[in-house]
Automatic annotation (TrEMBL):
It catalyses: a 1,2-diacyl-sn-glycero-3-phosphate + CTP + H(+) = a CDP-1,2-diacyl-sn-glycerol + diphosphate. This is Phosphatidate cytidylyltransferase. Residues 1-43 are annotated as: Disordered. GO terms for molecular function: phosphatidate cytidylyltransferase activity. The chain crosses the membrane at residues 51-70, 125-142, 154-173, 185-207, 219-240, 246-270. Keywords: Cell membrane, Lipid biosynthesis, Lipid metabolism, Membrane, Nucleotidyltransferase, Phospholipid biosynthesis, Phospholipid metabolism, Transferase, Transmembrane, Transmembrane helix. It is a multi-pass membrane protein. It is found in: Cell membrane. Its EC number is 2.7.7.41. It comes from Nocardiopsis endophytica. Belongs to the CDS family. Residues 16-25 have a biased composition (Gly residues). It comes from the Bacteria.
Length: 311
C-alpha cells in the first residue's frame, strides 16, 4: 500500500524535512520527531513524512482489517462499505477541483450494495449491482441539464469503476470457499511488501528515475526492491498459508508488484492532473484513504485472477 507520491522512495520530497546545506542551522531541527535514515555514503535521507506516525496509522488500519476477518469474515463487507463512502467523499472533492460533479447518493448506495453483493452473491452480483449503479448515476445527473453532462458522466463512471468495483474484488477474494480469508491476507501482505521493499531500496539506492514525468521520486532501484520483496512474500504466503506451490507465489508476487506500480502511477497522474497533493487527511502520515489504497485497488482484481486460475 502506498501513498501515490511515495511509491518507492521519498528522499527528494517534503519541504523542511531535514537540515539544508549551507543553512548554518537555520533550517532547525523540525526533525527532532522525524525518523532519520542515512544512505551508504552517510548522506541523510529525507523521508518526506513523519514515519512513526505513518507506521502507527498503517498498523491501526491493518489491525482493523484483521479484527473484521476473525471470527466472521462477513464483517469485512462493513470495512469496504465504509471505505467506499470515505473514498467517494475524497474523490468528490478531488474531481470538483476540475469542475466535475459526482452523483453521490446513487454512487454511495450502489457502492455499498456492490460490497455486500460481491461477498454474498459472487462476481455475478458484483457486475449486476455495478451496472444498476451506473444507470442510476447517469440518470441522477439528468436533472443538471446538458451543460457538462459528458464530463460529469465520465467522472461518475470512472469513480464507480475505480473505487467500489475494484473494492468489490476484495470481497470476491475473502468469500472464496475454504481459504478466502487467507487469500485476502496473502494479497494484502504481498502488496504491502511492494511498498516496503521499494521504499527502502529507493531511499538507500535510488539513482535512476523510472517515470520522471508522472512521479519524479520513483526509481528503477526502488522497482527492483519491490519485485524482490513481492516475490519473497508471494512464495512464503502461498506455500505456508494457502498450501500452494512456491512458483504460484512467485507469479503472484510479480503480477501484484506490476499492478501495484500501475496503481501508484495512476493516482499520481490523477492528482497531478487535478492539481492536488493528497486526496484527503483521513490517515495521519498518509494523507487520504485513497492515497493509502491506490496500489491495493489495482492489485486486488489481479490477485483474484491469479489465485483463481492457479490455485
Amino acid at each position: 500500500m502506498s501513498n501515490s507520491d511515495s511509491g518507492f522512495e521519498r528522499e527528494r520530497r517534503g519541504e523542511g524535512s531535514g537540515p539544508e546545506s549551507g543553512s548554518g542551522g537555520a533550517a532547525a531541527d523540525d526533525g527532532g520527531a522525524r525518523f532519520r535514515l542515512t544512505k551508504p555514503g552517510g548522506e541523510p535521507v529525507r523521508a518526506g513524512r513523519n514515519l512513526p506516525v505513518a507506521i502507527a496509522s498503517g498498523v491501526a488500519l491493518g489491525a482493523l482489517v484483521l479484527l473484521s476477518l476473525f471470527p466472521y469474515p462477513q464483517a469485512f463487507s462493513l470495512i469496504t462499505a465504509a471505505a467506499t463512502v470515505i473514498g467517494l467523499r475524497e474523490l468528490n472533492r478531488a474531481v470538483a477541483s476540475g469542475g466535475a460533479r459526482l452523483a453521490l447518493p446513487p454512487l454511495a448506495v450502489g457502492g455499498v450494495a456492490m460490497q455486500f453483493g460481491a461477498h454474498f452473491g459472487g462476481a455475478e452480483w458484483l457486475v449486476g449491482t455495478t451496472a444498476l449503479t451506473a444507470i442510476c448515476a447517469l440518470a441522477w445527473r439528468l436533472r443538471g441539464g446538458a451543460d457538462g453532462y459528458v464530463r460529469d458522466a465520465a467522472a461518475n463512471l470512472f469513480t464507480l469503476c475505480y473505487l467500489p468495483f475494484l473494492l468489490g474484488t476484495w470481497q470476491l477474494l475473502v468469500a472464496h470457499p475454504g481459504d478466502g480469508r487467507d487469500r485476502l491476507i496473502a494479497f494484502i501482505i504481498v502488496t504491502i511488501s511492494s511498498d516496503i521493499g521499494g521504499y527502502f531500496a529507493g531511499i538507500l539506492l535510488g539513482r535512476h528515475k523510472m517515470a520522471p514525468v508522472i512521479s519524479p521520486n520513483k526509481t528503477w532501484e526502488g522497482f527492483g526492491g519491490s519485485v524482490l520483496a513481492c516475490m519473497v512474500a508471494g512464495g512464503l504466503t502461498v506455500s505456508l498459508m494457502l498450501d500452494g506451490p512456491v512458483w504460484v507465489g512467485l507469479v503472484l508476487g510479480v503480477a501484484v508488484v506490476l499492478a501495484a506500480i500501475v496503481g501508484d502511477l495512476i493516482e499520481s497522474l490523477i492528482k497531478r492532473d487535478l492539481g492536488i497533493k493528497d486526496m484527503g487527511r483521513f490517515m495521519p502520515g498518509h494523507g487520504g484513504l485513497m492515497d493509502r489504497v491506490d496500489s491495493l485497488l489495482i492489485a486486488g482484481p489481479v490477485a483474484w485472477v491469479v489465485l483463481g486460475l492457479l490455485l
